[in-house]
Design brief:
Elements (H helix, E strand, L loop, with lengths): L8 H13 L4 H21 L13 H7 L10 H4 L1 E6 L3 E6 L4 H6 L23 H17 L1
Length: 147
């Protein structure tokens, strides 16, 4: 499992305010989790990371093997394994159970990992984009209005 840590004051303050107003934040975390999974899966379609940067193209060897240049998409297993869970009622985790997810997220070199067929560029697919942040804040506001 990949562990991405993200620190954003606006979202944290909104969550703390919400926590003071209500005792059960699990429902809004579930909604946020759904949105983040959808957003993350969409990145596989557009080949752009949460920071807005386009993913590195596949190598010529990979393009020849696959017959196309669509980074991180072979049979779609990594994308299908994006999921979320809420732990302890106040912790949302979004990630992938695929063994190679961390290598795709952070990249690696053949010198670091001799079993690789070549260097793997980082192609971040997990994380919070500006659109994600806005949607999170909207979800929190909606939840506070209806609680």
């Amino acid at each position: 499992m990949i562990d991405i840590q993200w620190d954003d004051r606006a979202v944290r303050e909104a969550l703390q305010n919400m926590q003071r107003q209500i005792s059960n934040i699990r429902p809004v975390l579930l909604a946020i989790g759904e949105d983040l999974v959808d957003s993350t899966k969409h990145r596989f379609e557009i080949s752009i990371g949460p920071n807005g940067q386009r993913w590195a193209d596949n190598s010529n060897v990979t393009i020849d093997r696959k017959g196309r240049n669509k980074p991180l998409v072979d049979q779609g297993n990594l994308m299908r394994q994006i999921s979320y869970d809420v732990f302890g009622g106040d912790t949302l985790i979004v990630g992938s159970s695929m063994e190679y997810a961390a290598m795709q997220q952070f990249g690696g070199t053949k010198s670091e990992f001799p079993s690789l067929w070549g260097d793997i560029p980082a192609r971040p697919f997990l994380g919070i984009s500006e659109d994600d942040q806005n949607k999170i804040l909207e979800s929190i506001s909606d939840y506070l209005r209806t609680s």
